[in-house]
Amino acid sequence: MNIESRIVRYGELKPCKTAFIDAHTPGSDLKENFTIIGGGVSESADQHVHITDKIGFNIGAAGQPPKCRNSLHSHTTAEVFFVLKGRWRFFWGRWGDAGEFVAEEGDIFNIPTGIFRGFENIGTDYGMIMAILGGDDAGGGVTWAPQVIEDAKSHGLVLGENGRLYDSKKGQSLPEGINPMPSLTDEQLASYPEVPVEDVVPGYVARYQDLMALAAKRPAKVIGEDALLKDRPGFEVDFLTRGSVSPDIGKADKPTVLMPVRGHWRLSWNGGETVLNPGDTALLKPGEAHGIEPSMTGEASLYRITATDDPAGATWTGD
Q1: How far out from the chain centre does Cα 125 lie?
Q2: What distance in Å separates the CA atoms of residue 200 and residue 216, rounded to the nearest whole number?
Q3: Which of 10, 37, 208, 257 could form a disulfide with 51 if both were Cys (CB 3.0 to 4.6 A apart)?
Q4: Do 192 and 230 belong to one domain?
Q5: pLDDT in tens, 135-153
Q6: How much is the average pLDDT of 9-21?
Q7: CA proximity to 254, closest of 8, 56, 73
Q8: Contact present, 69 and 88 (Cβ < 8 Å)
Q9: In this structure, is residue 314 part of a structural domain?
Q10: For residue 236, pLDDT beyond 60
Q11: What is the four-CA torsion angle of 138, 151, 125, 116, rounded to 10 degrees?
């Protein structure tokens, strides 16, 4: 199979509208979840997975109309977002009031693990954020704030201890032998820090315009041990522009994913080529020869994610 068979086009993305426990909760009931590469974090059997390869990290996306939010939850592995379309508010803390910041198109946010976080579309149109999730089993590390679980029950959704959703509106109930997912105790909740905004921004945030300047002549290292956002979440993130790439054919040592933000990009390989557009996702396997360059004039930018041998994430320490 050639590279083209591992390209997911933006226009072909298949959403799941019942992916999470808050799917019926007013204010969150219009969101759409996309799993592009890997198993993702969806709690619904209805979730479509475009590419099932296990590459050390997952690629997904969230699409939401204006004023729609994703409820407070926590991860034990990395959760990185960049804004493809719209304007988004990210917030965190036990009740979502410990800190917040607004992300514009192209901005990227490496959310610290081990804190409750949520996000909402505060733009005027349907918005889309693309996600990178650490590890092959990203769904195994999601914990919901207790109030989210309680709100969901009153709207017909129960999360089983097996990590699956059961919808009473569809006549479903917990299977025999499966108990509801227990809410966190007060003692457990005390281990989730209330991180002030100055400890998150700018240390975990990179702005699009800054990256455009940094990548004017060479790829900008965005997330990694020696990158702008210093972290080792199990993958590295680079940012490429027209001035920081060459048409030469090269090879990656690890699984690599290309995700255009702006412009049209020509992806070539031995025996073929295609054009990647904003919102498209391409998976390259280790040792696969390829070249990538803008195919037209004008602004062009692209995030490149490469697997590493680092662990998939660690709990926030405040460092």
Answers
A1: 20
A2: 26
A3: 37
A4: no
A5: 887 656 689 999 999 999 9
A6: 94
A7: 56
A8: no
A9: no
A10: yes
A11: -40
